[in-house]
Amino acid sequence: SVSVSVSVSSQTSSTCVDEADYRIVPVYNIKVKAIDLHSSHPDIEEIDFLQMDMDVDVKNKTEKGTFDVIVCSMVLNCVTTAENRGIMLSLIYKQLRPGGLCFLTIPRLCINQSKYINRKVFEEMLTNALGFTIEQTKETPKVAFWILKRPSEVEERGGQHVIEWNMEWETTRILHSGPKYRNSFAVALQRTR
Predict the structure, then answer these.
(1) SS3 letters for the chain?
(2) Contact at 8 Å (CB) between 119 and 112?
(3) One digit per residue, pLDDT tens: the chain, 193 residues?
(4) Contact 53, 45 (CB under 8 A)
(5) Gap between the terminal Cα atoms of the chain
(6) Which of 1, 127, 155, 168 could form a disulfide with 75 if both were Cys (CB 3.0 to 4.6 A apart)?
(7) How far apart are CA 49 and CA 95, in angstroms?
(8) What is the pTM for the complete model shown?
């Protein structure tokens, strides 16, 4: 499973010129950092996302995001424990710059057939506990997809609605039983992350 993080910076250039009219066309400097636990390609770094270093804002002594975009496609479900899935989601939020996006996909059965979690609880964790805003969702017969946004610095300072911490986010408990709920996908969050 590969996780891809992208940094994008925009510059304005007039190198694209149409003889009839002059247009300013943005040129993007895209820097991609592709990672995998067991890379088999020279352009993919062999790194554990859970062990990646964070950039630190020396002035404020806080961790700051590095990436404009993080793609986490069919990775979260491969993380072996509910606790490490929670850590991964928290780190994704922290690794994003304010205003950055995460494209998250997991198998649909992880939220539709899990004994421990459903879409409502998962999205509550993403928004209320971690601080993401959900920009878009989509489901196919096999895949659940989210576009998550880390709020901009202005939105973060603006005091978005914060609810009281739900202790149930820290543990896994059986929500559903029966033969339909055979999946054991779960997420457990740590309040300090």
Answers:
(1) CEEEEEEEEEEEECCCECCCCECCEEEEEEEEEEEECCCCCCCEEECCHHHCCCEEECCCCEEECCEEEEEEECCHHHCCCHHHHHHHHHHHHHHEEEEEEEEEEEECHHHHCECCCCHHHHHHHHHHHCCCEEEEEEECCCEEEEEEECCCHHHHHCCCCCCCCCHHHHCCCCCCCCCCCCECCCCCCCCCC
(2) yes
(3) 455 555 555 554 445 555 556 667 676 777 788 888 888 888 888 888 888 877 655 555 556 688 899 999 999 999 999 999 999 999 999 999 999 999 999 999 999 999 999 999 999 999 999 999 999 999 999 999 999 999 987 666 555 545 567 888 888 888 888 888 988 999 999 876 4
(4) no
(5) 24
(6) 1
(7) 10
(8) 0.77
**What Cα–Cα distance (Å) separates residue 156 from each residue in 63, 125, 149?**
15, 17, 12
Question: What amino acid is encoded at 25 in this protein?
Answer: V
Question: Tokens for 2?
Answer: 């590969």
CB 132 within 8 A of CB 102: yes
